[in-house]
Amino acid sequence: MPAFNSIYTHGFIRAAVCIPSLRVATPEHNVARTLALAERASAANAAVALFPELGLSAYTCDDLFQQDALLEGVLNALERLVNASRALTPVLLVGAPLRIDSGLYNCAVVIYRGRILGIVPKSYIPNYREFYEKRQFSAARDAIRQTVTLAGDTVPFGADLIFTAENIPGFTLHVEICEDVWVPAPPSTFAALAGATILANLSASNITIGKADYRRMLCAAQSGVCLAAYLYSAAGPGESTTDLAWDGHALIYELGELLAESERFARDEQIITADIDIERIVQERMRTTSFADSSGDHRERLRAMRRIPFTFETPTGDVPLQRTIARFPYVPADPVRRDERCYEAYNIQVHGLMKRLVSTGIEKVVIGVSGGLDSTQALIVAARTMDRLNLPRTNILAYTMPGFATSETTLTNARNLMRALGVSAGEIDIRPSCMQMLRDIEHPFARGEPVYDVTFENVQAGDRASHLFRLANMHGALVVGTGDLSELALGWATYGVGDHMSHYNVNASAPKTLIQHLIRWVADSGQFDDTTSAILRSILSTEISPELVPPDGADHSRPAQSTQAIIGPYELQDFNLFYITRYGFRPSKVAFLAWNAWSDATRGEWPPELPGDERRQYDLATIRRWLEVFLWRFFKISQFKRSALPNGPKIGSGGSLSPRGDWRAPSDAEADVWLDELRRNVPENLIGSCGS
């Protein structure tokens, strides 16, 4: 079995962007520095190593490019590099001026394991402001031939080349040069539509004030709209500063997200690396149907592109993941971004409920308040909704409904929260009506036996829902749901007449981990008064529990049940939910990502406001165990509940299980294919953390 702790087992490849220290018109020196960085990239187990434009000669040679001695020196340097590449791991992308027929071309040479796979000439030759490249170079469109002879081999030549690793699905590479990405329709756009996932740009790109920001924007946009990775190199130390300066800017983006960036204006040469998730790119393209539509619009051009196959020799053994995997995919660790997300999520919920009330002409809502997280979030959303509609908060008919297992802590929090928000607070003891039903169905508990089965629990959940709907009937109100996305994923809801159903559910696409941070954000950002904020913090510190099974003894001070002891830690299950539904990853990859995110509590960022005792870590055995629970519950037993959901607003890109939204699935599916993949490909445990 391939190494579990290797990125190449899980659909990643490592990319390197190298900025060597060059000497103008000195190929012997330049190839030595190129080779030194290529060896570093190889030692780092990179699959691709990108170098700057015209790196074997230097970019700033001007009319020296027309000197035979320099061009011959470049050929000699190229031959040395090709020979040395036999022992190197990555595909090398190097820049060289090459004379072909009657023209001189600014080329990217693609080298792998002692062979030139292809040569890509620059398509767009700038001749404005400080650039005079047309004085020396011809454009790709001027080429007569599609192959050239170099180092004794016949080599594909042209801007229409795509390089495909036949043994690694999705590892397809395209190369363009500097100005090519600055035009309205870059060659890489068409390459991406033709299947290239890794887009690379050999650039020189002198630096002027503000240009670095534009480069970032350009590379981010190209990787985003092309649903691809984009690698960018700019010339650095050693280029001539006769009239220009160089900052050695290297960038790696994936789907619009910056993965790595070099230090600009560094004195010494540099190499940056990042792990690119090819499977994520492939998944995004498969799901984004407009991407395929756009490909169809250009099918003739795309069919004409030449695909150059090669077999990539995958590094063996452990190749730990270098990129940071967020523990909470629904909640950014960065406080500024977290506040932005919470602001948006909270207001999406508020505006969703506002529209439903306005469209129905109903001005009152009924909500059950347990003193737990979900009902708290729903209640504060309802309170802000009334404020926005200029309606009194007394139009919120809030009821706490203690049962056989309600703790003093949650009941006190529920009472205090309703009082602090100024809603119409009510309290209904559901034990008498539940006892009547238990007697009617001849349940053992009605005879005094301590039987706390699913029937016992659902009688209480159903009784609460029944009260809420009848109260809504009586008061001309709308029942606001409280169940969250995490519970829907795991089937942790009483179907039909239970917490599964409502007239409108503001929490429908909010996972439990996000709700925790939303409540904390509401408390910390002063959305309500200090008294309310203090109550919210008390609720956050309370054990998550359905409170349907009473404690063994007489202590009713705190919840006796622990939801997470039954269905797993919500922080792990939300992680599983995100990567399985948002990206469709196989379970072994999800486990690998979770292990990287959660195996060491001392590594990586935490949301700064999260208490220290909540900064947990999990070994692979624990991750595997709860992922198995998730797969069985999500795919096998819970879909029928998700197929009959009340309306509710979608909040995030990975956040809807509505059959009218992001998730449509059969209620009768089996979980075997996911469970089998997990059991085959995830070891029982690994010693220590991921070690990245």
Summarize the model shown:
By secondary structure, this protein is an alpha/beta fold. Helices cover 38% and strands 16% of the residues.
Molecular structure report:
The protein is of the alpha/beta class and about 700 residues long. The protein has 21 helices and 20 strands. Helix 9 crosses helix 14 (about 510-525).
Topology overview:
Layout: E1 12-19, H1 27-43, E2 48-50, H2 68-84, E3 91-100, E4 103-112, E5 115-121, E6 147-150, E7 153-156, E8 161-165, E9 172-177, H3 187-193, E10 198-202, H4 211-225, E11 229-233, E12 250-254, E13 257-261, E14 270-277, H5 278-287, H6 289-297, H7 299-304, E15 306-310, H8 335-360, E16 365-368, H9 373-388, E17 396-400, H10 408-421, E18 424-427, H11 431-440, H12 454-475, E19 478-481, H13 485-490, E20 504-505, H14 512-524, H15 530-540, H16 563-567, H17 570-582, H18 587-598, H19 620-637, H20 639-642, H21 672-681
Helix pairs in contact: 1-2, 8-9, 8-14, 9-10, 9-14, 10-15, 11-12, 14-15, 17-18, 17-19, 18-19, 19-21
Low-confidence stretches: none
- Report the sheet-strand fraction: 15-25%
Largest sheet: 7 strands, mixed
H/I helix tally: 21
| Percent range of helical residues | 25-40%
Give the termini separation: 21 Å
Overall shape: it is elongated
> What's the rounded overall pLDDT mean?
94
What structural class do helix, strand and pairing data support?
A: alpha/beta
Task: Tell me the radius of gyration.
Answer: 31 Å
Annotation, overall tally of beta strands: 20
- Give the strand order, joined by hyphens, for the main sheet: 13-12-11-10-9-8-15
